[in-house]
Write a structure and sequence with these properties.
The chain is mainly α. It has 11 helices and no strands. The longest helix has 21 residues. InterPro entries: Homeodomain-like_sf, HTH-type_TetR-like_transc_reg, HTH_TetR, Tet_transcr_reg_TetR-rel_C_sf, TetR_C_Proteobacteria.
Length: 223
């Protein structure tokens, strides 16, 4: 005999499995990031609120929080986004067919263009200001300069393993490379002593810096 209770239970529709939730609107996320990048440059970290970012992005404050959680996370993502745009990961991929010098020139040019951009100079001045909290400086460092230095260190490691470079301390070599690229030109800009250098000056500066770096670390023929 059929159990009426079991029959009734079997006639009910199966419960739907819990879904992953509504997908995030990528267009709104991009608008929030763009607004955050512009406002952090214009007003510094302390002068920016989630309300002002929401207003500039044309979204609600709730939408900003749903995408990024808090202002610290949004600041970190804004710094990362800028670095990825101007120094894409593809620059640091070891190309089996690409010449080492050409790849280093590509990295050097992109890095120099990034650090001498008006937005980057403005943010770096904010980081150097005495009233900037150390936690903000740390977030900036990890999201921007540290990410870039780590990427170059791994690139140099791969090229060393291929026998093209003689390097034992990859992170130190990466820092030396970027210090060469910054040079005196960047210091002058940070001090407000000169505007963005002419393209010909920047090109020559990067080429000479790469030549100097390779003179120190390129593999030498066996005698």
């Amino acid at each position: 005999m059929t159990d009426p209770t079991a029959a009734a239970a079997s006639s009910k529709p199966a419960a739907k499995a819990a879904g992953p939730g509504r997908p995030k609107d990528l267009g709104k996320r991009a608008a929030i990031l763009d607004a955050a990048k512009a406002l952090f440059v214009e007003q510094g970290y302390g002068g920016v609120s989630m309300d002002s970012i929401a207003a500039q992005a044309g979204v609600s404050k709730l939408t900003v929080y749903s995408h990024f959680g808090d202002k610290e996370t949004l600041f970190t993502e804004a710094v990362k986004s800028t670095c990825v745009e101007m120094l894409p990961d593809a620059l640091f991929v070891t190309d089996a067919e690409g010449a080492l010098r050409e790849q280093l020139l590509g990295i050097g040019r992109a890095f120099f263009n990034m650090i001498t951009s008006p937005a980057a100079v403005a943010v770096q001045r904010v980081m150097m200001a005495p009233d900037t909290d150390d936690r903000i400086r740390e977030m900036f460092w990890e999201a921007g300069p540290q990410r870039t230095s780590d990427a170059l260190a791994e690139f140099l490691r791969a090229r060393t393993e291929r026998g093209e470079l003689e390097i034992t301390d990859f992170h130190t070599a990466a820092q030396q490379f970027f210090t060469l690229i910054k040079g005196e030109l960047h210091t002058h800009m940070m001090c407000g002593l000169r505007p963005v250098p002419a393209e010909c000056d920047a090109t020559t500066h990067v080429e000479e810096s790469v030549t100097f770096f390779l003179r120190a670390y390129a593999t030498r023929p066996a005698r």
